[in-house]
Amino acid sequence: MFLAVIVFILVLGVLIFVHEMGHFLVARRNGIKAEEFGFGFPPRIFGVYKSEKSEKYKFVPGNKNIRSKNTVYSLNWIPLGGFVKIKGEDGGEKKDSDSFAGKSAWVRTKVLAAGVIMNFVLAWVLISIVFMLGSPQATNAISKDTPNAKIQISEISPDSPASTAGLKVGDEISKIQINSANQKIKINSIKDLQNYINIHKGQKIILAVKRGPEKLNISITPRINTPSGQGPLGVALVETSLVRYPWYKAIWTGLITTLNLTWAILVALGTIIKNLFIGHGVSADVAGPVGIAVLTKQVTEMGLIYILQFAALLSINLGIINAFPFPALDGGRILFIVIEKIKGHPVSQKVEQAFHTSGFILLIILLVLITFHDVAKFIK
Fold first, then answer.
1. What are phi and psi of 295, to 5 degrees?
2. Where do the domains of the chain lie, and which CATH numbers do they carry?
3. Cα–Cα distance list, 127 to 70, 113, 252 (Å)
4. pTM here?
5. Model pLDDT for residues 178-195, shown as the tens digit of each residue
6. Active site residue 20
7. Catalytic-role residue among 20, 36, 89, 301
């Protein structure tokens, strides 16, 4: 559990930090002052900045107020990502040449979009690393060409024997099973496993399972009467093999996979929004911080490859959500820049701030509701 908490903090921390680093780098490149770039969230542990007189870096402990024309780089107590404080981002100081508010609409759009773009780039990098290390991919059958192939659970039906017994998605069914007569049964394919299970319908069996580094013996009774579309255990199985790519191919394959995943997530989100508008409700599970923490625990048990894949998916989701033209998000702030160009003059600062504040409150309410849903679901 402790390891899962560490992984959860690291994954979310890296995603947020990379997002903020995108804003920081593009702002600096376009002559905008970044007053502070922090790792973690305040209160501050210490800050470091370059002295304007000596050109040497100064160390300032604690949460003291630091006034400097140069960027303050800080380490903060709350280890969840980071933040960047950009001069003029609140609309003030428009006359200053190094202010965000004083820059052209195009430059401001680039700064705001940089965080989203960095999340997609991070996903691309992580998926490319997965392909270099070895990506689990479905294979038609176990053969001499794929000696490391394994049978894994890809889906578990609710209220099924598998769900009741505690089997999990990603569990690997061992190639050697022991029957009630203490005999070794070799499983070479999904068909072999299905035959083994069908023979023991209605009888308790001990299923040998690998879950990450753990080897488990799980007691389960395959049901005789099965619901439509389900088998005796209530699981979907897939034969997978660890496939490695050379670095140059991994980069290209990682890009294509990132684009495909982005499109798939957009389609899924579009379906959710459409269902809400037509009154069908949310048919898919939507996870908040608690749900993500639980999923992190599951992928941590499965190993590094799955952690990297999970982080890549979260990074894509974070990028897409921030790109939405909703107040308080990067996409919402870009929307006001577009309105400014159409009108020929900026929207009233008070009006824009009111919209962003309202949007932030709505997001907090949504986050609380999703968290309650997560807690209720996992307690149940």
1. -65, -35
2. 138-243 (2.30.42.10)
3. 36, 22, 10
4. 0.77
5. 766 677 778 888 888 888
6. yes
7. 20
